[in-house]
């Protein structure tokens, strides 16, 4: 319910014609606070770092316009938008950070996820509203499944009557994946009736690592949409609205043939058991190495066989000692 009413208040404000009063932004309702005071607070924190001495009239007007959004957040039991001024000597250390060279700058910290993000878009009311709303809503983590192996993905895909799958690739080298996961979880919840969402940790299990290596996954985060037996790459900006619009557009009937054609230019493979059964007749080279995806050694099965073999050897050695 919190998300629904929060959305309504944002929409109500953005569609209302308001004429801001000509006075200081802080006097209009945005709460002034020091950087260190804010860090002591819990929960989700949203702050605008600014320079009251250098701010333009337009920037001050934008700050005044944000008062209604701040009030909407308080109504929902959240912190207001905080205002941190460079002119306050108590904030000197904070403004020495390189990313506060250009002001004003919006910063948001999500307490539950321990993720901090800076808004890169132009500083105006629509961008601030979109940035905050895109991050403050939560999805259900249980709606995001963990990738196990290519074979299991193929089985799952066909057992669900080829229900589309959104694959989110992550890695420990990815600096934004934790923040992006918030959007992925939100999308997984909103799209779960039509799309299954999975995460692939390229630093995870042997099966995950092997999959990422074999498809040359080197850039993170990365999204692949599996639909109609082919994969499509996402190349846009990682926001909930951008990814959601992309998924919905790609699943339109008129995009089906275009996606197949785009995939055919990259690979001859079709993600279906029928395809792999056919190519499986010639799936291995002279050295016994698999040539086709996902016709690869099942590493998990191989490790289990090795463990079983070691136990058998130990048992034989033990029996041999008893015999002697």
UniProtKB/TrEMBL annotation:
InterPro entries per the UniProt record, alphabetical: Thioredoxin-like_sf, Thioredoxin_domain
One Pfam short name: Thioredoxin
Gene3D superfamilies linked to this entry: Glutaredoxin
Keywords: Signal
Residues of the Thioredoxin domain: 119-318
Cited SUPFAM superfamilies: Thioredoxin-like
Stated name of the protein: Putative thioredoxin family protein
Organism of provenance: Giardia intestinalis
Organism taxonomic ancestry: Eukaryota, Metamonada, Diplomonadida, Hexamitidae, Giardiinae
């Amino acid at each position: 319910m919190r998300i629904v009413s929060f959305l309504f208040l944002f929409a109500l404000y953005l569609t209302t014609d308001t004429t801001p009063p000509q006075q200081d932004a802080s006097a209009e309702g945005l709460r002034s606070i020091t950087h260190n005071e804010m860090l002591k607070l819990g929960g989700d924190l949203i702050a605008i770092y600014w320079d009251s001495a250098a701010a333009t009239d337009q920037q001050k007007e934008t700050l005044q316009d944000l008062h209604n959004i701040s009030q909407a957040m308080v109504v929902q039991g959240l912190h207001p938008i905080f205002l941190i001024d460079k002119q306050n000597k108590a904030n000197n250390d904070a403004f020495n950070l390189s990313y506060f060279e250009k002001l004003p700058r919006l910063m948001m910290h999500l307490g539950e996820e321990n993720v901090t993000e800076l808004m890169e878009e132009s500083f105006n009311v629509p961008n601030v509203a979109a940035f905050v709303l895109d991050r403050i809503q939560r999805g259900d983590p249980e709606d995001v499944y963990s990738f196990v192996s290519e074979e299991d993905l193929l089985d799952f895909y066909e057992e669900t009557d080829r229900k589309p799958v959104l694959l989110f690739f992550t890695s420990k080298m990815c600096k934004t994946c934790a923040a992006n996961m918030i959007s992925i979880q939100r999308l997984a919840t909103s799209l779960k009736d039509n799309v299954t969402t999975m995460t692939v940790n390229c630093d995870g299990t042997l099966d995950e690592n092997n999959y990422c290596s074999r498809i040359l996954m080197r850039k993170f985060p990365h999204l692949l949409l599996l639909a109609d037996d082919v994969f499509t790459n996402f190349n846009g900006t990682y926001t909930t609205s951008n990814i959601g619009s992309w998924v919905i557009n790609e699943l339109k009937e008129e995009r089906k043939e275009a996606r197949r054609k785009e995939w055919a230019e990259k690979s001859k493979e079709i993600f279906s058991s029928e395809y792999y059964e056919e190519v499986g007749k010639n799936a291995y080279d002279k050295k016994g190495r698999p040539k086709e995806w996902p016709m690869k050694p099942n590493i998990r099965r191989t490790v289990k066989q090795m463990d079983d073999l070691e136990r058998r050897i130990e048992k034989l050695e033990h029996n041999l000692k008893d015999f002697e």
